[in-house]
Amino acid sequence: xxxxxxxxxxxxxxxxxxxxxxxxxxxxxxxxxxxxxxxxxxxxxxxxxxxxxxxxxxxxxxxxxxxxxxxxxxxxxxxxxxxxxxxxxxxxxxxxxxxxxxxxxxxxxxxxxxxxxxxxxxxxxxxxxxxxxxxxxxxxxxxxxxxxxxxxxxxxxxxxxxxxxxxxxxxxxxxxxxxxxxxxxxxxxxxxxxxxxxxxxxxxxxxxxxxxxxxxxxxxxxxxxxxxxxxxxxxxxxxxxxxxxxxxxxxxxxxxxxxxxxxxxxxxxxxxxxxxxxxxxxxxxxxxxxxxxxxxxxxxxxxxxxxxxxxxxxxxxxxxxxxxxxxx
Length: 328
Fold this sequence. Notes:
Layout: E1 5-10, H1 14-26, E2 30-36, H2 40-50, E3 54-56, H3 59-63, E4 70-73, H4 80-89, E5 93-97, H5 104-117, E6 121-124, H6 132-142, E7 148-158, H7 176-192, E8 198-206, E9 212-222, E10 226-233, E11 235-246, E12 250-253, E13 262-267, E14 270-275, H8 281-293, H9 303-322, E15 326-327
């Protein structure tokens, strides 16, 4: 029998139902063995949809199940630290939805617990597991687009009319920077392989939405006079793009985080299309997670990387609310 990592799902959030549970089921290494909700009816409904064998009416019951190896936590942002730490201390490996916490201090506590318990903790940025990003980094290092001059990223969608959405609760970690701005920030750090020096962010802070950032535009300064410019938010037409600009060319990703894997390389010789094989990013994420748990390779993305991303998000929010440039 093929070895399987036995997953428990802590909560029935939309991202779990739409993407992560199907991804684990399509992976080579994972099986969804249990799901929990604060009410048993929701857990049973989701379990029936996916043929998940065990259901629990509380998160504590799932964490007490000795037949669960790892848990995925898609809860609202303000619950990430609490339930990640409880899961790690219960002996489970944890895949926590992004952003990993409400701030870098919380993320550091989670990382420390991972180290202390010897259980793996990963932040659920599924796009990083699509092989095209490794290929794009190779193209940059080859010099094909010349010296890097800048990166521009976008991630926007419009759900401003939604009622009682958790993204509109400031104390729950709502806002566009946390929900989608974290993607271009993460991508720039991934591509540049270094940490920013300063950020400046201007935001639309909406009183109708608990004063969270419904739109934000930012400048993230990296060493070597290279910068990420980005815009993100929850009150604009949908896009999720990335452009990497060099002295002699550029790389364009029309669907940088979700959507197909096609991207375009523009050089002095013209424009060419590159397409990676169609792969489920969530399945790739699950397989990479299992390989780390089983000791087959070290983590590509450590808990410390998640802490570093939160430091940038902390600075972005401080800049947006205080209208100032923030150094890191």
